[in-house]
Amino acid sequence: MALISFTDKGMYCEAGQFYIDPWQPVNKAVITHAHSDHARPGSQSYLCHRDTLPLLKLRLGPYNYQTVEWNEPVYLNEVKVSLHPAGHIIGSSQIRVEHKGEVWVVSGDYKTEPDGISGVFEPIPCHTFISESTFGLPIYNWKPQHEIYHDIQNWVRSNEVAGKTSVLIGYSLGKAQRILQALEEVTGNIYVHGAIWNVHETLLQAGFKLPAVQRITPETPKEAFKSSVVIAPPSADGSAWMRRFTNHSTGICSGWMQVRGNQRRRNADAGFALSDHADWQGLLQAVKATGAQKIYITHGFQSVFSRYLNEIGIDASEVKTEFGNEEEETQSQDPTIEQ
Prior knowledge:
This protein is about 20% helix and about 25% strand. It has about 350 residues and is an alpha/beta fold. The protein has 2 domains: about 5-140 and about 275-330, 4-Layer Sandwich (Metallo-beta-lactamase, Chain A); about 145-270, Metallo-hydrolase/oxidoreductase (Rossmann fold), CATH 3.40.50. The chain has a 7-stranded mixed sheet, covered by helices on one side. A 6-stranded mixed sheet has the order 1-2-3-4-5-6, with no helix packed on it. Strands 14-13-15-12-16-17 form a 6-stranded parallel sheet. A hairpin with a 2-residue loop joins β9 and β10. The longest helix is centred in the middle third of the chain and has 17 residues, at about 145-160.
């Protein structure tokens, strides 16, 4: 029997009697990171990295949590489990599972270029590697982070000169913190949507150092936004919440902006291909670095990526999961969005 099986509740280790990132409530859940498609409520207990804990509490509420440091082994029914950096978002981890000499690694979501915030992706030697393929097409080839940051900074400066508000769209957890990192050099006049404010405050209370921001409320005067920067989640784009910004330009921060047509379809003024996932080369490098004899592809461009791996002599298969939709903010979660 395989060390990890794919069930209707999620990835299950029968020998250890635990699930990894289950999408239904279970007794024991081991969590790679705090995005909503990987961390869901209702389980009896959760094991995660220490930096993920405050984010899980924010997202899920009070539960029975256990935390570990990276590379700190724990034993679940004689199965050795350890967490290792995935580089995706703060606290994101790969899960290494070892039993009777067999090693599997569940990567969750990951990126291979260090971002200075999320920990540095660490290839883990294993027999079987479970990988995403969100951007598993050769067209996805990211520019270095510092170049993308430079593009964002220049765009913000040009908007400031024109007296425009720069509205940057990105996920509240992961992308927003990287956008702030890019903005730190060019402005201290940063406003954020309530969903981003909640994550920001949680991270500050957990001891992370982040640039100062101001929360947008119904009382925030419209003139305050002139020549300022606003960070908002994708759920706010095109909503009534956006109407408070009159003379503004919108920039979307997403790997999907690598394809020019996506910027036009989203009716954005600018697109920055800033992604928290590995690009095509990053995925290939990660898979090869594990030395795994078997690869399972969970979500993304599964058929293309797995077919290519098989063509180059790496045994790969697709598996069906419920991962892949990180958009966790909805209008109902933030009372300011309809103002």
